[in-house]
Amino acid sequence: MTTKTQIKNFVIPEKEYMYPGHVACPGCGGVLAMRLALKALGNKTIVVIPACCWTIIDGPFPMHSLHVPVYHTAFETAAIAAAGIKTALEIQGQKDITVLAWAGDGGTLDIGIQALSGAAERNDDIIYACYDNEAYMNTGIQRSSATPKGAWTTTTPVGNPKGEPKKNIAEIMIAHRVPYVATATLAYPEDLVNKFRKAQQIKGTKFIHIFAPCPTGWKMAPELMITICRLAVLTNVFPLYECENGIKYTINVVPSKPLPVAEYLKLQGRFSHLQESDIEQIQKMVDFEFNFLLKKAQLLV
Amino acid sequence: MKKVVTGNHAVSFGVKLARAQVIAAYPITPQTQVVELLSEFCASGKLNAKFIKVESEHSAMAACISASASGARAFTATSAHGLALMHEMLHWAVGARTPVVMANINRAMGPGWSVWTDQNDSLSQRDVGWIQIYCESNQEVLDTTIQAFKIAERVLLPVMLVLDAFVLSHTSEPVDIPEQELVDEFLPPYNLKTKLDINNPRAYGGLTNPDHYYELRYKIQKAHNEALVVIKEVCDEYQRYFGRQYGLVEAYRCEDAKVILVTSGTITSTARLVIDEMREEGRKVGLLKYRVFRPTPRELLRDILYRAQKICVIDRNLSFGHGGIFAQEIKSVLYGLPAAPPVYSFVIGLGGRDVTPKDIREMIEYTYKEEIPTESIIYRGVRL
Ligand SMILES: Cc1ncc(C[n+]2csc(CCOP(=O)(O)OP(=O)(O)O)c2C)c(N)n1
Ligand code: SF4
Fold this sequence. Notes:
The structure holds two protein chains of two kinds.
Chain A: H1 29-41, E1 45-49, H2 53-57, E2 70-72, H3 78-91, E3 98-104, H4 105-110, H5 113-122, E4 127-132, H6 169-175, E5 180-185, H7 189-201, E6 206-211, H8 215-218, H9 225-234, E7 241-244, E8 248-251, H10 261-265, H11 276-299
Parallel strand pairs in A: 1-2, 1-3, 3-4, 4-6, 5-6
Antiparallel strand pairs in A: 5-7, 7-8
Chain B: E1 2-6, H1 7-17, E2 22-25, H2 32-44, E3 50-53, H3 57-69, E4 74-79, H4 80-85, H5 87-95, E5 101-106, H6 120-123, E6 131-134, H7 138-155, E7 159-164, E8 172-176, H8 180-186, E9 203-204, H9 210-242, E10 249-252, E11 259-263, H10 267-280, E12 285-290, E13 292-294, H11 298-305, E14 310-315, H12 325-334, E15 343-347, H13 357-369, E16 378-379
Parallel strand pairs in B: 2-3, 2-4, 4-5, 5-7, 6-7, 11-12, 11-14, 14-15, 15-16
Antiparallel strand pairs in B: 1-8, 6-13, 10-12
The complex binds thiamine diphosphate (TPP) and iron/sulfur cluster.
């Protein structure tokens, strides 16, 4: 296992590929995630967007706010639409263009998982990024399989909050033995940019799972977006790590003394109904999962 | 070069001659052989194309659409349940104005499971906006495959060519396979003016407010109108190159016909024999082969059918709660014409049940005999 807490001599590119005029809510994590991802990838990139908040965020026809081509596609087709574009470019001899599928957690973990799994199995040469706001936000905050246990959404109301833990999409993708899987979040922008750059250099299916809070759906103050991202990492709720070829794990941040999960939960209205005992249970689950990850990372040192 | 090939392989040869660049497909009986041969062509380098072995038909269509939007000539083939699974993406192909070409092997829908022919799969996709062309022979299948790319790329609409399960898909016939050089002349490389391009970064298919959406739909309808002209031109040009003509519809011995029989697909071949026999008996019967189903060749159908006294339509399909779909179409085409001939609507041969010359003769006799159709749907051969 290797541990990296800092990426040396690295600055985030100044060049912008996202212009003002997008229509996201204030403090939207998904927006900053795209801005950083494109800074990393540069202008030789085509972005594929299925139904999700980003369908709206980019702006209505005939406007759009990204300075790269954007191809909108149906909800469950991000991975295969990206693969179709990449294949078409290759047969026309344009081999140096990065095709980025950019989908929400619903479009990735739920309805889109068939196409994503298909692409991963074929090792289609795309980067697939899931910006995870832990619910169906575009349709008004309904639970997805990325919604964490205990969270409120409009379909998991306070009297009956989400009962099941979050589906672990990164591990599902790692199990496909794709060349590169990484997690990232906005409080660690150099790490995020670095991972997209790394993914761009690798041939095959690359999967990047981005923890991207949604102030609207999480009932949180927009200005806390980065704080929450940092807390998610420092509490081990959302560990930052990479896995190459389904085998070689690198945990990028191992907090020497993890903060209590309660610190993370208490800033979000979607968890405000939780009792002490619920929080204890969540803490146990988080500890278990992180230790499990550490063990996996130690398997092949 | 003449070769004895199945309908399925006629499609494959057509796609090869058309130099498709991206093929994405998922197996389903009776389509499978189409893409098996194509994957062999790709593997051996006989066709310079990329074959994406997708995990579902929904993905096959999604891949074809995005590949097409990126400037590659794209093809897929499917049947019945595969086509139904694509439904959402069939809409998408039209809205995105991508000239994808697809072969659909007409197969009945389950349950009960049936792999045999009927038209409910393709006809239930009637309103998605694809051009639909129904073929009668393996030669027509091959020729239509090549034509389909040219039509699709001229009007920026996807084209579905349709052939009957087993009767064509698995039946071998001698087929004249044209020379590649000549096909290359007939069908120049795909050149999409507006496509995904990093040097001209645009958004395709984004959120469209009521201010713009309606006009986009209007333009799709305009493209269908244009397609009526383009299909005719492409057929004429094809005849100049390869000596075979199909057209939007085929009127066979209709000039002085009192009763005109309307058929589609392979029932047409059987019907042609019956028409010849009855003509020899001095009966004034004609046959109209409905080939291009969408766009509707309205004027042409009117011109041919209006002169007859009665129209007998054979449907190997059934729109539940209403009736045979081709009959509906014919009725709507004739609607409003003073003294339009009555339409006798027959439903027969569902799930691949044989349609014999005797059946066809009986339906024509019925049409002769009854003053008006006695029922809105006349079922032939249903055993209760
Ligand atoms: C086949 C289909 N079913 C449902 C929808 C409706 N729909 C649009 S976006 C969306 C939710 C997207 O959620 P997610 O992928 O998590 O992205 P987010 O909106 O949270 O950014 C749903 C359910 C659709 N567009 N297509
Ligand atoms: S609802 Fe949430 S994810 Fe969607 S734009 Fe607003 S903040 Fe972003």
